[in-house]
Design a protein that fits this description.
Length: 136
Amino acid sequence: MCLNVLAHIQDHGQAVKNLAQTLVRDGHLLVIVPALPMLYNDLDRLAGHHRRYRRDELRDLMVQAGLEPVRADYFNPVGGLGWWANRLVQHRSLNDTAVNSQISLFDRWLVPISRGLDPVTRTLFGQSVLAIGRKP
């Protein structure tokens, strides 16, 4: 598993190749990354993200690493809308009260809505991408 790490690594292609090399035959690599370059904002910069990903881009990284893509889908569309809205506000810290309030609101009230929308939006939009590749 590689959860929200690749966006922090400059040479993400080599990182996926390194992870793929550790797998046994028929082993699987699960990767979660921030989605959609259009959502990139100062929160990403503050978090140390070099990039955000499209699902086909993550799938291509797996193929280049010698893995067979099993799936690559967006998830959390409501969080994606919130991330997009945060482009309109300048943030100075990830520990800002406004940021933490948004997280609390999302976790308490919006997670069920986002989960319900995931099956409809998984090929179109989300805050993150989940991809699975298999080593042949």
